[in-house]
Amino acid sequence: MSNIAELDKKLNDAVLGGKAMEAFEELYDDDVVMQENAEPEYRGKDFNRKREIEFFQSVEAWHGGAVLATAAHGDVSFSEWTMDVTLKGVGRVQMAQVAVRRWKNGKIVHERFYHK
Is the pTM of this model over 0.90? Predict the structure, then answer.
């Protein structure tokens, strides 16, 4: 599967289906760079795997989520998300974000999340 829109859909479906870490292993490059808004970049699959696991362990309850819109152009895909989760020690939070993913050879090499 080399079509960026198809790969993006595969990842989004995996996240919504509770298979985010499986998709992470399959679809993220070993040298992936991940970033939240304008925060510093986090480099490498091993480091980002730990961050992803920590996030999912902080989720006490998943109340729902949806992909509202997607687009792909060239080697870049965009997904607009809403999520409703209860985070341990924080409480129930409704989140809205856009994920911008840059792909190379069927793997994500850069992913940035924009949210407030």
Answer: yes
